[in-house]
Design a protein that fits this description.
Strand order of the largest sheet: 1-2
Helix content: over 70%
Number of helices: 5
Strand content: under 5%
Largest sheet: 2 strands, antiparallel
Number of strands: 2
Order of helices and strands: EEHHHHH
Radius of gyration: 49 Å
Length: 186
């Protein structure tokens, strides 16, 4: 029993396919030969066409018999060739989908598992980076807060020193001490 894309086929059924193709070619030849022409040159033209078709049919039948004898339905190979972006891969992938190719299904499942693994790894890496960024942000925020507090303390000290009431009080104390000691400030 032969299998074509998962469909079990007996040798007799495969041979029937070849026989149908050969019968179709013979029927086409017979229908051309039955054409009746009025003019001699048309008749000669039909005869030339018939001879050429007979030769083609003979060659085709010979090739078909070779295929029938040497074909292996267990492993069927088709080749596609053509220009870039002509659709070769699209046809092949469509055939793979249509016939539920086992290797393709396994590849899809494998890729799905790998995709999920990678997504978990990326999510884990992203969470780790977010945590690191949070730590860095908190560290910088703490450092900036300390700097800001230091600046405020400096400003408070400067404000105390440069406070007009304080300056007047200091000058007053100095003046009084100077008067007591007899120092003249003028």
């Amino acid at each position: 029993m032969k299998s074509i894309y998962g469909v079990k086929m007996k040798n007799q059924e495969a041979n029937k396919i070849y026989e149908k193709v050969m019968e179709s070619v013979k029927a086409s030849l017979e229908s051309i030969q039955q054409i009746e022409m009025q003019k001699d040159e048309d008749v000669k033209q039909i005869e030339l066409i018939s001879v050429e078709l007979d030769k083609i049919a003979s060659d085709f039948t010979e090739e078909l018999l070779k295929l029938q004898n040497y074909s292996e339905w267990e492993k069927f190979t088709i080749a596609f060739f053509g220009e870039t972006n002509a659709g070769k891969s699209t046809i092949i992938e469509s055939l793979r989908i249509a016939f539920n190719e086992i290797k393709r299904e396994e590849l899809i499942q494998y890729n799905d598992v790998e995709y999920k693994k990678k997504m978990k790894e990326y999510a884990s890496d992203a969470n780790s980076l977010i945590d690191q960024l949070d730590e860095s942000f908190m560290d910088y925020a703490d450092r900036l807060l300390k700097i800001e507090n230091s600046i405020k303390q400096i400003q408070i000290k400067q404000n105390r020193l440069l406070n007009p009431k304080r300056i007047i009080a200091i000058y007053s104390v100095i003046f009084v001490i100077g008067m007591v000691l007899g120092i003249v400030f003028f």
